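Figure caption, in words: inputs first, then the predicted bound structure.
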Amino acid sequence: MRKPMMAGNWKMNKTVPEALALARQIHALVGGSAVVEQLLCPPSICLHALKMLAEEMPFSLGAQNCHWEESGAYTGEISPAMLRGLVDYVIIGHSERRQLFGESDETVNQKTRAALAHGITPVVCVGEMLEQNERGQTGETINRQVRAALDGLSGAQVQSSIIAYEPIWAIGTGRAATAGTAGDICGQVRAILGEMHGETVADTVRILYGGSTKPDNIGAIMREAHIDGALIGGAALEAASYAEMVRITGEMYGA
Ligand code: PGA
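Bound structure (2-phosphoglycolic acid present):
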């Protein structure tokens, strides 16, 4: 019922020609997958060029961030109105944005609402810092972040959202959470969604795990009942590793 997703977050990597080349290489290796949704999230400046390519190739496109206002004096920002029609998804509240660019639970909520208002699916990121993890505060951190991000949304809007659990200590460190731990936390996220909007809503929301996923660990991670996909950083920058992760997931889901 929940279609698995391999989401590549390219972060601030790839020029426009490099982005086009990477998308073509991925397509050459993996082609279309009937069962796995391939989501590419390149830098915003590459979106238009990739949109042209996406018309021929079976991947979805996502932005890495957006502002919450329609337009205005916000130098350097991109509004959801500008992304409408260009992307299907937008990553909201990635930990790098929270840590390096001052995003708070409040701005994450504003951006989530703005994306939904423009028909763009938000991929809302939550995750605890190392110190929170070591102090046993993972559960409460996730609980606060999920509730704050989705505050004021209807059940239908939550159903149209994706949550990505990304423990900050696992991002770009080569130290992924164990599949069991990642699965437990994603299960907790689903339980929170259930408390907020009931089980029917909670059961349809896709929940991704992110943080040092790669071909070696994606199988174990995807076997977890509450994990519906991965938000992939480093391993999505190489066509071979990303394609392999799509292939492994496709096999598990019976492609
Ligand atoms: P990583 O990044 O796979 O390189 O750890 C994940 C992310 O930041 O989304």
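Residues 9, 166, 171-172, 210-213, 231-235 surround 2-phosphoglycolic acid (CB under 6 Å).
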